[in-house]
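A.,

Following up on our hallway conversation. Structure tokens first:
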């Protein structure tokens, strides 16, 4: 886990676009025409680290979305990862530990030395988001001794408890503090055009930072319920644009298409590795928890080639089992996330609202109910659902049931739909330990290599034990993380 070379920054600081940055590591000393680390600027680092973070979040979902049952394996992947076949997520590990986090550490250091607090604040926020995603996947991780290059070739693994209670708290608090500092008068130290997320609008970064800390507190609320109110307070200061245009995300273009398009939208049916799951589709097609209520987001998220109904694929099944051959729903270029220009969300208005709804549920049902409805409306607007369809769905008695009748099941199932293809949902499911009260209708994979258990953790990257002898020894993926014990 040595620091990445600065090859990608050459592309950033020349005429090419960051979205096409290559991931291969090259030694800059082999090519005197390449920029040295001292020549890389904080503006270039910012662009690359935002892109690296989006790639890391995409990589977590590319195969990991079988765990929260958003996707079921298909073709060569049927009854594979979704059956809990041990899978080393090297692509997730590398995008976080080779690309995103070492360069974020560098961005923070350079920004603090230069007197650019907003750059430092963004760096701390993105580092916290990457580190939180990684520890939610694997638990114990290298952090305090990591990213030091040859001086520490085999960093020790910090306990997840220490990462959550010390490291993440310091990063998130520091991000908010830095973002609230006066903006330097020197324009070279002001965040500008290389900000791929918000184009230098620091107020949007502040809201994202509060949203990230709300996510942090709600994740910790099962360890200490007092964190729920802290989550609610931060959510109130977080992303507040109901249309989704102020979400923390990276948008793609026709020339530089979304990785979801490349992975799920573009491949022909015979080449697709995953299809939408039975559980996910049933929540929306009127046969699941929201009985007889057709969700207008169905055609935005799935393509059923004009069939009368939408049918998902059971997880952990071969095409000859459990009606898997009946599945007709896919993610194609006609769908929101399968399009060439689809975004990779990192933190959204809808998520913030559902965090607030969950956080207030025990103490302020009216506030929770308002946030719950806001989350649904916000996600529908983001997906491009028409106003009439939004109102028809939200006003249905199954949705607008009044604050007194609101349940955590309502909140968490709507959050599940709104966070489609985002791995944060897996953290939610493990916080509630896959409860059939919270997630009615959820069943283990038909073929379950963990026996009767649901999957609790990601397998450490296959390549990591050969690089670091300190990798923890874990019996299997049924072993719970500290966060969920």
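Then the amino acids I'd put at each of the 485 positions:
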């Amino acid at each position: 886990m040595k620091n990445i070379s600065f090859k990608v920054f050459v592309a950033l600081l020349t005429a090419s676009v960051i979205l096409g940055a290559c991931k291969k590591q090259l030694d800059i000393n082999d090519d005197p025409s390449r920029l040295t680390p001292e020549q890389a600027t904080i503006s270039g680092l910012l662009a690359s680290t935002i892109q690296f973070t989006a790639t890391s979040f995409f990589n977590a979902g590319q195969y990991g979305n079988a765990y929260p049952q958003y996707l079921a394996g298909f073709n060569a992947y049927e009854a594979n990862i979704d059956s809990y076949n041990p899978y080393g997520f090297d692509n997730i590990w590398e995008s976080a530990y080779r690309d995103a986090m070492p360069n974020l550490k560098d961005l923070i250091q350079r920004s603090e030395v230069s007197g650019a607090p907003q750059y430092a604040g963004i760096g701390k926020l993105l580092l916290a988001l990457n580190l939180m995603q990684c520890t939610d996947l694997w638990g114990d991780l290298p952090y305090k001794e990591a990213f030091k290059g040859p001086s520490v070739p085999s960093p020790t693994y910090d306990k997840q408890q220490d990462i959550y209670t010390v490291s993440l708290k310091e990063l998130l608090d520091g991000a908010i503090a830095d973002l609230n500092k006066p903006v330097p008068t020197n324009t070279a130290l002001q965040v500008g055009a290389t900000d791929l997320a918000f184009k230098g609008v620091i107020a949007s970064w502040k809201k994202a930072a509060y949203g990230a800390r709300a996510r942090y507190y709600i994740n910790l609320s099962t360890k200490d319920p007092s964190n729920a109110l802290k989550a609610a307070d931060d959510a109130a200061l977080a992303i507040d644009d109901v249309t989704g245009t102020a979400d923390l995300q990276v948008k793609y273009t026709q020339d530089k298409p979304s990785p979801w398009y490349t992975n799920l939208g573009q491949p022909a049916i015979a080449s697709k590795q995953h299809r939408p799951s039975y559980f996910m589709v049933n929540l929306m097609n009127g046969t699941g928890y929201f009985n007889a209520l057709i969700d207008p987001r169905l055609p935005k998220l799935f393509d059923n080639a004009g069939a009368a109904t939408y049918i998902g694929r059971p997880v952990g099944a071969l095409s000859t089992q459990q009606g898997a051959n009946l599945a007709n729903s896919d993610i194609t270029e006609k769908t929101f996330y399968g399009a060439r220009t689809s975004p990779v969300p990192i933190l959204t208005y809808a998520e913030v609202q559902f965090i607030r709804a969950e956080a207030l549920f025990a103490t302020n049902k009216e506030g929770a109910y308002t946030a719950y409805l806001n989350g649904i409306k916000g996600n529908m607007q983001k997906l491009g659902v028409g106003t009439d369809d939004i109102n028809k769905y939200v006003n249905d008695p199954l949705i607008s049931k009044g604050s007194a009748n609101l349940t955590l099941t309502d909140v968490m199932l709507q959050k599940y739909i709104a966070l489609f293809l985002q791995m944060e949902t897996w953290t939610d499911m493990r916080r509630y330990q896959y409860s059939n009260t919270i997630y009615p209708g959820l069943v283990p994979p038909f073929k379950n290599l963990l026996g009767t258990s649901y999957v609790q953790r990601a397998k450490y990257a296959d390549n990591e034990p050969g690089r670091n002898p300190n990798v923890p020894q874990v019996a299997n993926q049924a072993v719970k993380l500290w966060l969920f014990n």
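The CA atoms of residues 180 and 234 lie 15 Å apart. Curious whether your intuition agrees with the design.

B.
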